[in-house]
Fold this protein.
Amino acid sequence: MMFELKIALRFLKDGRGQTTFILLGIAIGVAVQIFLGTLISGLQKDLVNGTVGSSPHMTFSAAETADASGLSSANGFVASSAGNFSRQEKTLDNWRPLLATLDQATETTAVSPVAEGSGFLLKSGERWPILVRGIEPERANEIYELKSKLSAGTYVVEGDQVLIGTSLAAEALLETGDTFTLELPGGQRQSLTVAGIFDLGNNSLNETWLFMSLSRAQRLLGFGDDISRVEVQVEDVFAADLLAEAYEKQFIGIKSENWKVQNASLLSALTSQSSSSLTIQAFVLLAITLGIASVLAVSVVQKSKQIGILKAMGTSSASASRIFLFQGGILGLLGSVLGSGMGYALTQAFLWGTSIQTGEALFPLEFDPAAAGTIIAIATVASIVSALFPARRSASLNPIDVIRG
Amino acid sequence: MASPLLEASELTMVYGTVVKTHALKGVNLTINSGEFSSIIGYSGSGKTTLLNILGTLDRPTSGTLRLLGEDITKMSDEQLAIFRNRNLGFIFQFHHLLPEFSALENVLMPTWIQSKNGSMKMASRAKELLELVGLKDRINNKATALSGGQQQRVAIARALINQPQLILADEPTGNLDSETTEQVYDLMRNINATLNTAFVVVTHNDHIAAKSDRIIEMKDGLITRDYPAAAMDNDAVWKEIAPKYCRYCNRDLETDGATALLL
């Protein structure tokens, strides 16, 4: 073992009370850092998941201006209305290469083509405005998790079998197996059967959405082979905007939208939350660093006699300063490892504490070993840096001053 | 003819810049290997300043110092540290052991500083040295759990671990009782005889001085007298060291008698 390390360890071991207190101080600081970090990232993940977990992160539709390459649809513009606003929307043709590319991409987790148009549900002489969404069942399920959100019936979307929302079913008094009539803006009618009733957790969607097979929707809406848009979920939701932009450049004639634009206020809230968490962490780190610096500064004075003797016996100034750098490093490493353990315990305690009443934690927390590793590394480096000043004092100690007594 | 271990010429030491204190005013000194010398003199005569310079702990204002044939005054601080570690042993008045370490560890400390390998060999040598100084049963005691005399004996063992040719001691018995003083002195003398290690001992204790090979007297930053005590008989030595006790010099003084006088 290195001589300086040996001395450093013995000095720390000998100053038991002092060492214990500073270790505890570092550990508590690091525990707070880790717990706070885990809490904030857990909360943010939960918020983001709640916001975009079961909806597309980015969508691709036809650009408003037709371009010269002949992307224009034979069907021209189709009127569509969603909710209480109407717009002219151009359909997307030649979408299969885009779909194939998105399927291949490693960044995407779900890709679903949608043909969408408005219509009315007719039953017992009453009319309800609805939004027809033509989907490929397996692909759409990856985004909307429809299978797990069925409150009645089965997940069958083919032929005249369709899915409607709980609110619509309640209003129109429809149950699984019931039939009703769909009326489209052009006036044509189609008889359909309720295969299942879904609950997407959003009243307006439960009231208006109707899922049918993509091919039938295309036919009913007069799209030919065109679709309205491709909906995509990605692995890293925060990179959705950059990805969307990249594809927009790669494929001519499409335009993209992404959740970040639609949720700008949520994002700015998350950003400010992150920066306040970072600020707190930085100040905790500063407090740790100052704590170590002051303890070691006192220690240099306490151990000046020993340093003087060591120097008289031939310890170099560099070596004398390393003794204190080692002490700083050891304190930082031990303290932050201990603190990581405490931080982990705190997150477990939080999960347990918040689940006492409901049986489920307030929101899921994931202890991130990589983040803990980063904090340990930063705390250790900061501790060594904080030992620089005491180390310099140790290096400049003159053995004669000590020996003279 | 022994080659000189240490050669100092015209060493001066000036402290302070505004008010200058001349601690050494031109000291010339040669120490031969295996010699046991004492430096005596009143407080402020420059004994300790000289010893610190000879031990390379301090640099003279002017003059040259050669140790083991090497010009010390031209070495850097780091070179000096290595030189000290390899070639010199120190014994201080307040024994200056590291209280965090055991007797054995304290003795091994100079070898750790050198980061010598073969620590097993060193450990057995350290044990031998502790046995030599009579502390065989105390090797694992913390330094703080030893008496003053025991601590000083550990310090002597520590000074010997790297087998230096020269040991510098600054009042090694300064805070020990007379019986322990005797033991420590005998031990140093014994090592001097068996290992041929040269000693330069700064002391206030005339009794120790009287038993040295050579007595160097200092006054006001200069060596005023330098005489070989070993070659003189007891009376003559005492006449030199303490002329005021000369009325006893006519008597047939035994060592014990001299001690009694000093007490």
Notes: Chain A touches chain B at residues 2-3, 6, 10-11, 13-14, 305-306, 308-319, 399-400, 403-405 (CB under 8 Å).
